[in-house]
Amino acid sequence: MGVTRRRGLIRTVCILGWRFRCRLEILLGMNIPQRRLPAEWEPQDAVLLVWPHDQTDWRPMLAEAQKTFGTIAEAIERFQPVIRVQPDAWNIPPDDTWARDFGPITIEEDGRPVLLDFTFNGWGEKFTADKDNAVTRSLHAAGAFGTTPLRTVDLVLEGGSIESDGAGTLLATTECLLNPNRNPHLSKEQIEEQLKAELGATNILWLENGFLAGDDTDAHIDTLARLCPDQTIVYVACDDPADEHYAPLKAMERELQQFHNYRLLPLPWPSAKYDADGERLPATYANYLVINGAVLVPAYNDPADAGALEVIEKAFPGREIVGIDCSTLILQHGSLHCVTMQIPKGVL
């Protein structure tokens, strides 16, 4: 049997196995677990941070990266604990530090927390990811998450690719979730079915437009638009017709306007940021992190920073809004939300 055919058979068996479990749950009737993906603004136990080390792409700017991570950790620890994954402490040397995308996605199952370990393939096999893909399982085995159970899910999915309102609605982009570099064997309908089964989703809002130059994630939703309390969506908006983002982000805005009963809050557009080679960097204010009592918002030493903090404050009234310089993070094409993963209340 050829390699291609063998892989196809394995995928078919995995899909059939997953469908059998879903059908079995249906047949069991009353025993079907009630699943829910909490919103990020719900109470948390901690935030997961994976520290930069000299075997990651941060090596040329390691001191600056560690300083930024330290600033983020200090800001979080004013409100809640931080789980720091450092090779010398956990003996878990990951490939990189983007905890949002390979960290655990926590759901409630019949009211109790369950950690889901989806497959991380380096954003469509763009980068080496085997060690990153093993981090959640390694941390769980080491007791980092207490006695909360862990379930492995046979689906390529990154935490930054989905937004939840905690009440059954997910927001995502077709560019990422339907990209053939993730789950090429699954149709849109099959992916929707699996998201509903695993995350308890009842409504999936798809965006077909929007991108950021320099983004390696294939348009993660957490770089473009975010669900907020009280039927609010904060989103990236470009007001410069000469900018390459203007048309696609206007198209995304029109899509958002088609969603019923949402208050839309546009974020200001920062000036273009470039690396030393002249490559544009994905500076976005949408990549903020919500924690207990506060929202940490990325800043870029830009005149638009202050306006971004004001918009986020409107979306999260009553929380302290904390700006954090993420100019170093975007040099590796991510930002504040990308390097963090919240651990909901009850996990620890």
From TrEMBL:
<dbReference type="InterPro" id="IPR007466">
    <property type="entry name" value="Peptidyl-Arg-deiminase_porph"/>
</dbReference>
<keyword id="KW-0378">Hydrolase</keyword>
<dbReference type="GO" id="GO:0047632">
    <property type="term" value="F:agmatine deiminase activity"/>
</dbReference>
<protein>
    <submittedName>
        <fullName>Agmatine deiminase</fullName>
    </submittedName>
</protein>
<dbReference type="GO" id="GO:0004668">
    <property type="term" value="F:protein-arginine deiminase activity"/>
</dbReference>
<dbReference type="GO" id="GO:0009446">
    <property type="term" value="P:putrescine biosynthetic process"/>
</dbReference>
<dbReference type="Pfam" id="PF04371">
    <property type="entry name" value="PAD_porph"/>
</dbReference>
